[in-house]
Amino acid sequence: MTYPLILLPFLLLTIIVTAASATRPRFAQRMRASAWTAGVLVLLTAVFDNVMIAVNLFSYPPEHLSGLRIGLAPLEDFAYPVCAAFLVPAIFSLVSPRRKSA
To answer: Which Pfam families match (predicted)?
Structure first.
């Protein structure tokens, strides 16, 4: 189960940074957009990872996986796009200067 352990820092970082961005403007709107984006990315990952695995472009050693799959794609493959969908906007909101109220 190497791959699930590799994912833990990414998941924790995503949770921490996203929670830290909760004080920034339009958090709820950003979370809705991130959720929609994550859904689309998961769908695309499901389609294309399954195709690439089916035509033997790559494979995963089973001893390093959790064993959970969506089709041929290991569940671990879906964590990266989900993290990106939430982490990138959260980081952007944190590094963007706050606008002063007029």
So the answer is: Lycopene_cyc
Which residue in this structure is represented by tokens 């004080």? 23
Query: Taking residues 12-21, what's their average pLDDT?
Result: 97
Amino acid at site 1:
M
- pTM score of the predicted model: 0.83
Tokens of 80: 């990266």
**Average model confidence (pLDDT) across the chain:** 91
CA distance 78 to 7: 10
Tell me how far apart the alpha carbons of residues 98 and 93 are, in angstroms, rounded to a whole number. Answer: 9
> What confidence category does residue 59 fall into, taking pLDDT thresholds of 50, 70 and 90?
confident
